[in-house]
Amino acid sequence: MLRLENVSSGYGNILALKGISLDINAGEIITLIGANGAGKSTTLMTISGVVKTRTGKIFFKDREIQKAEPDDIVKSGLCQVPEGRHIFPMLTVQENLDMGAFLRNDKAEIKKDLDYVYSLFPILAQRRNQDGGTLSGGEQQMLALSRALMARPEVLLLDEPSMGLAPLIIKQIFEIIKQINKDNNTTIFLVEQNANQALQIADRAYVIENGKITLSGQASDLLTNEEVQKAYLGI
Amino acid sequence: MLTELRKSLIASIWFAFLTFPIMVIKVNSIEKTIQWRWMNVVYVMVGIFFLSMAFRFLLKQKEMRAGKEESGTEIKLSPIHQLINHPTYRVVFGAALLLFAVVYPFVFSTYQINIMTTALMYVVLGLGLNIVVGLAGLLDLGYVAFYAVGAYSYALLNHHFGLGFWAVLPIGGVLAAIFGILLGIPVLRLRGDYLAIVTLGFGEIIRLVLENWGEFSKGPSGISNIPRPGLFGIELSLNDAITYTYYLMVIFVVVTIFFVNRLQDSRLGRAWIALREDEIACQAMGIDKMKTKLIAFSLGAFWAGIIGVMFAAKTTFINPASFTFLESAMILSIVVLGGMGSIVGVILGALILILLPEYLRELSEYRMLAFGAALVAMMVFRPQGLISNVRRTYSINKDE
Fold first, then answer.
1. What's residue B72's pLDDT?
2. ipTM of this predicted structure
């Protein structure tokens, strides 16, 4: 579905990704874990075209996308939930969700998806006329996730959905991520610092260190891997 | 209370000190004597003291009101918003305004009609800039450049090729829009303050080119004898021509309001508002950032160009002095004072800022002073503008 071949990219003189290769199949939940500054977010930004690829190739549905513009990539069915949520603070919850369906024209289907995300997060339905900026952190994350779903993506890129949230909310969000994957067969690429939670819901995982993939495998294997336990799980 | 008295007292002393050189000392350069007007110190101090007290009182009241609003769950709309949002009242209100606009030339003198035409021109300019600043959130300080492009395209095309008003009207608008795109492509990569500075520079460049490129634009002496708008080739007397221009302007305003209103609720309008709020999120939603901004910029410029043509036709004479930065600042003030993104606010802002100085001619020396004070007071008491923008909300009736 989505394949990165020896991709490197960065900002200015600094190379944040030094040739990474990933392979994501349709319907999987893949997680990318790593420490601060390892290049997790850059990987996502590079896939979605916000940060330009220096060398290497990115394939999405067998099409090279490393040179495409961000909006073009979204149009082809790849949607990102940016780090730090980035909801529209002055637009209502409903309008935020409408913005998610910006590229779509099928009103009936949009309505169906709207009902679906409201069923996932009933709290958002309650607050549909409230400004996005007045929501709590957890609710904002739910909104950001729902907004991305409104684009009906084939691949959903999630950048640290657990950032700054209470453990209970994190658990709820991860459960819903799993449910989204199951309900719509949406492929999910999850970038996380919270390795424990991420590995528990993922099928496969990659570990990134200093812009390089150092380890990959089944998520359940990584959970018991000694190195991973020491470095990321604090066991 | 006591601290406030003290603060006001300090403010009045401070002001007395600051204004001492201009208010107290008067040099008579003929008799070479200095006049000391000590009474002025007292006037300044008393005046500032009461002003300061009033300011503090109003500020306190505002805080109290804010506290009350937070405790209450229901958001109260101002009377004007209730008027605008109510379906029947809105129609009645609009019809009354339109009727007033139609009857206006029969009731008032030619001088008044002329002023009103100018004010209406600023209404359209404000609405055009409102697209750029209010909706898309791009601070454009060089808006007057597009206005100049429109005005000069009419003046020059008429001078060299004898093209009429109606022929140039679309050309002027399109030319301005093209200038908007040309400027926009390099400049819209910038954000916020940087964008403001570059657009400010662009505005000045256009003016300086017009001023110095004599062979092209006739330089500072300007272009005169520009024909007024034509009416199927009928010769109009001066008075009739002014009235005709006025009616044209009313039609322009109505058309502009219609378009801007439709734009605001369109997909494009949504994209603008979203872009103003968060660019990263917009990209994640698949909005083409550059294209959306360029459209906003060129649409705003288009309206400025149209009004530029209108301006040249109305005054029959233009020179670069009409397109200074002050003009840009004026249009921006209309948008900010009226309420960013709000159509009714911009209209009211334009009428107040253009008409008031005309009717208070006697006080014209203090115009800039009052203008500054009004803007400061606005930012303190009503930062959202005279009439803030209330976005249209749709409620979904669930039949369950």
1. 44
2. 0.81
